[in-house]
Amino acid sequence: MPGITREEVAHLARLARLELTDEELDHFAGQLDDIIGAVARVADVATEDVPPTSHPLPLTNVMRPDEVRPGLTARQALSGAPAQEQQRFKVPQILGEE
């Protein structure tokens, strides 16, 4: 017998506005019970001797330094554009705004 009942699963389904069959209620009751059991086991593992951490391994910044480098000129960037206006890409209007 699962720790979470079919009625509790049905109640959760109603709150979430889900329509579940009887087979789904039974199936999800077992799955939710397994999930709740796994979460409870995590609480048993944590001990007073282990400091809280955000990651088990030390992390270092792997990003490159932010350096100014030459880029494309407006003419180069727009060279393959099908339409342009005032040194910008021109695209079709989609929102109906002026």
From TrEMBL:
Catalytic reaction(s) noted: L-aspartyl-tRNA(Asn) + L-glutamine + ATP + H2O = L-asparaginyl-tRNA(Asn) + L-glutamate + ADP + phosphate + 2 H(+); L-glutamyl-tRNA(Gln) + L-glutamine + ATP + H2O = L-glutaminyl-tRNA(Gln) + L-glutamate + ADP + phosphate + H(+)
Residues annotated as transmembrane: none
Alphabetized Pfam families for the sequence: GatC
GO process terms (BP): glutaminyl-tRNAGln biosynthesis via transamidation; regulation of translational fidelity; translation
EC code: 6.3.5.-
Key word Glycoprotein present: no
Keywords: ATP-binding, Ligase, Nucleotide-binding, Protein biosynthesis, Transferase
Function in brief: Allows the formation of correctly charged Asn-tRNA(Asn) or Gln-tRNA(Gln) through the transamidation of misacylated Asp-tRNA(Asn) or Glu-tRNA(Gln) in organisms which lack either or both of asparaginyl-tRNA or glutaminyl-tRNA synthetases. The reaction takes place in the presence of glutamine and ATP through an activated phospho-Asp-tRNA(Asn) or phospho-Glu-tRNA(Gln).
Subunit note: Heterotrimer of A, B and C subunits.
Name the UniProt record assigns to this protein: Aspartyl/glutamyl-tRNA(Asn/Gln) amidotransferase subunit C
Organism lineage string: Bacteria, Bacillati, Actinomycetota, Actinomycetes, Kitasatosporales
Gene name as annotated: gatC
